[in-house]
Amino acid sequence: MIELRPVEPADLDKFFEYQQDPDANHMAAFSAKDPSDRGVFDHHWQNILNDEEITVRTVTADGEVVGSVLAYPSEGYPELSFWTAKSHWGRGITTAAVEKFLAEYPARPIRARAVKDNLGSIKVLEKAGFKPVGESKGFANARAAVVTEEILELL
């Protein structure tokens, strides 16, 4: 069973652990310059948790913390972002979590971004009703290269 709940302090240890996976970092692309730097990670998450404009939830599957989903203000729109532990990819967990999050977060339009070769994330967003509205290029730390992101929107 997939559930969303407020982030608890112990969740951050799991989020940090999941951030260490090189494949997950490659797919996310826009990750920390040094994913193993716990100080930078903790600072980043404290900023998220202390920002009243950000809505963030821990994702659990059968009671186990498996990731997070959040919406934050970006370029005049709320933007959806999510991270699921690689060990839980391909099971429909992210799709269910995104759908649950969108049911409790009614602001529309809402946007999301995914690197064009991150077909799993793009598929999750399309299943939730997001449609492509543009592209953006940016430097991705995890790939040490400029990448193209698909920008998607849900009305």
TrEMBL record:
Cross-referenced SUPFAM superfamilies: Acyl-CoA N-acyltransferases (Nat)
Q: From which organism does this entry originate?
A: Arthrobacter crystallopoietes BAB-32
- Supply the Gene3D superfamilies for this chain: 3.40.630.30
According to the UniProt entry, its GO molecular function terms are: acyltransferase activity, transferring groups other than amino-acyl groups
Ranges for domain N-acetyltransferase come to 2-153
Q: Which UniProt keywords apply?
A: Transferase
Q: Where do transmembrane segments lie in this chain?
A: none
UniProt protein name: GNAT family acetyltransferase
Q: Does the keyword Flavoprotein apply?
A: no
